[in-house]
Specification:
alpha+beta; Immunoglobulin-like; five-stranded antiparallel beta sheet; four-stranded antiparallel beta sheet; rod-shaped
């Protein structure tokens, strides 16, 4: 029996014998087990931290949503109470403003505010080639001509004398463009550029300032599509923002 054990030990190398008799905590399976346990613990801790952050973020998100909804509801309830009669009246006026009125310049708006509509004595009259209001007077000239515009197309030139009756300096073309329109075959004619002898006159009308109480000899020029059809001038009522019943036909032939 002892002989058999001695033979077994003689067959084992010293290194094999040493490994076989190592304590359990120095063996590879023990190290591998410890590493696996550490990895599992790290994974559990990481998962717990991520889950905790997600849970903590949920109440904050819901709180923001609630605050946003409440703000909207409060705005809807309070808004009608803050509208004063004066503001309601201003809103009504803005709603009734037409695109044509929006083209008028700031000076025209200032005049309206300084002189309320109920104080206007002459909202607009037209008689014997004279268009007159509390704000301005246009005397239409008999000199109506078919000319060529800056592009060589047919255009209608109408001379006038403009008198500024406001307390502000005014540009004749801006006042004329807001107060007088010309139509042919039911379509509004658009302003165009002039050339030759009429270019300086049109440029002065389009860019020159007329002082309060002063007059200016100017002209307007519009492009026409048909040189045979009559053109009709319409004049504005400054109180109603509509146009007068009186019109001025212009013969082109």
């Amino acid at each position: 029996m002892n002989g058999h054990n001695n033979n077994s030990r003689s067959n084992m190398t010293r290194e094999s014998f040493r490994r076989k008799h190592l304590p359990f905590y120095k063996r590879k399976p023990f190290y591998i087990t410890i590493i696996l346990i550490i990895v599992v613990i790290i994974g559990i801790v990481t998962f717990w931290k991520i889950n905790s952050k997600q849970e903590a973020s949920k109440p904050t998100s819901e709180t923001h949503k609630i605050e946003k909804v409440e703000t909207k509801k409060k705005t809807k309830k309070v808004s009608p109470k803050k509208v004063t009669p004066k503001k309601a009246k201003e809103q009504k006026v803005e709603k009734e403003t037409t695109p044509k009125e929006q083209e008028s310049d700031n000076q025209q708006t200032e005049k309206t505010e300084k002189k309320p509509q109920n104080q206007i004595k002459n909202a607009g009259t037209y008689n014997d080639l004279t268009y007159d209001t509390d704000w301005y007077t246009f005397k239409i000239s008999n000199e109506v001509k078919l000319v060529k515009d800056a592009n060589g197309d047919a255009a209608l030139l109408v001379k006038y004398n403009y008198t500024n009756k406001t307390s502000n300096s005014e540009i004749p073309q801006r006042v004329q463009n807001n107060a007088i329109i010309l139509k042919q075959d039911g379509e509004t004619l658009s302003p165009t550029g002039a050339k030759g002898d009429y270019a300086a006159l049109i440029n002065a009308s389009n860019g020159g300032l007329v002082l309060p109480g002063k007059s200016f000899d100017g002209a307007l020029i519009v492009k026409v599509k048909n040189t045979d059809s009559d053109v009709t001038m319409y004049f504005k009522n400054i109180q109603t923002n509509g146009f007068l019943d009186m019109t001025q036909p212009l013969k082109l032939k």
